[in-house]
Amino acid sequence: MVTRALDVVLLGPPGAGKGTQAKRLAAAYELLHLSTGDMLRDEVARGTELGREAESYMKRGELVPDELVGKMLLARLHSQQAAAGCAFDGYPRNTEQAKLLDGLLAELNRRVDIVLYLNVPDEALLARLTGRRSCPACGAVYHVASHPPRTEGVCDACGGALVQRPDDREEVIRERLRVYHEATSPLLSYYQARGALREVPGTGSQDEVFELLRQAMRSSRA
Ligand code: AP5
């Protein structure tokens, strides 16, 4: 029996838990975790031409131009690891990107199957983002209060030194939230109109949110 690929989009404001939950969903459903934020940070760290161009936008909390992100995504989408489906985290970010993704998936006889919207009020997001610490070596993500590492500043998984993302400063967070409400939130009605949107409250613990996401996945595929 041939199983069809499963493509899931995680939608939500900065700090809603998209990355945290996309990793868990990707592991549980054997999907490729595709985070455009992680890919861009990797380009910046490696000092590539794309990274140098993207960095100035990211520092200000603005969206990186669609064509740069689209190019990066295209290669991953056509890779063998993406054949069983993807958990898209941070993509699409506006209606143009959503249309591009529809087109790219259609070429592969696929479509966005489920859009999981993690709903977290703005008041909670600032505390989550200012307290986030991540490991540049292995990508693990912590929070100083809600999910601290065993030893302060040290990654549990690989022993690497934890850092604060440069765009997790308060003034940049506020700009990212503004951009989210202006450019990204219209995607809620875009996907609602086609019956793909599932809203999940993202305010519980990481385990509680993951269970709600699994329930939403089950009901969508029933
Ligand atoms: P990106 O990396 O995608 O950032 P973002 O969307 O702003 O989202 P975050 O990574 O900040 O948050 P998240 O929702 O993943 O939350 P997380 O799980 O880490 O993008 C960064 C930049 O790159 C953009 O500003 C833009 O410039 C550029 N970019 C990226 N994609 C682009 C695109 N498609 N087009 C154009 N530009 C693009 O959790 C946050 C914190 O909360 C962590 O500390 C975590 O431990 C904690 N936490 C998670 N869940 C819970 C919970 N349930 N309870 C309490 N704390 C929790």
What's the total helix number? Answer: 9
What is the molecular shape? globular
Strand order of the largest sheet: 2-3-1-4-7
Return the CATH class of one domain.
Alpha Beta
Structure description:
The strands form two sheets. Strands 2-3-1-4-7 form a five-stranded parallel β-sheet, with helices on both faces. Strands 5-6 form a two-stranded antiparallel ribbon. 48% of the residues lie in helices and 14% in strands. The longest helix is centred in the last third of the chain and has 16 residues, at 206-221. It is an alpha/beta fold and 222 residues long. The model has no long low-confidence stretch (mean pLDDT 95). The radius of gyration is 17 Å and the shape is globular. β5 (132-134) and β6 (141-143) form a beta hairpin. α4 (66-77) packs parallel to α5 (95-107). The protein contains nine helices and seven strands; from the N terminus they run βαβαααβαβαββααβα. It has a domain at 6-31 and 84-121 and 177-221: Rossmann fold (3-Layer(aba) Sandwich), CATH 3.40.50. BIS(adenosine)-5'-pentaphosphate binds next to α1, α2, α3, α6 and β6.
In short:
This protein is 48% helix and 14% strand.
Structure keywords:
7 strands, alpha/beta, two-stranded antiparallel sheet, 222 residues, globular, 48% helix, binds BIS(adenosine)-5'-pentaphosphate, Rossmann fold, five-stranded parallel beta sheet
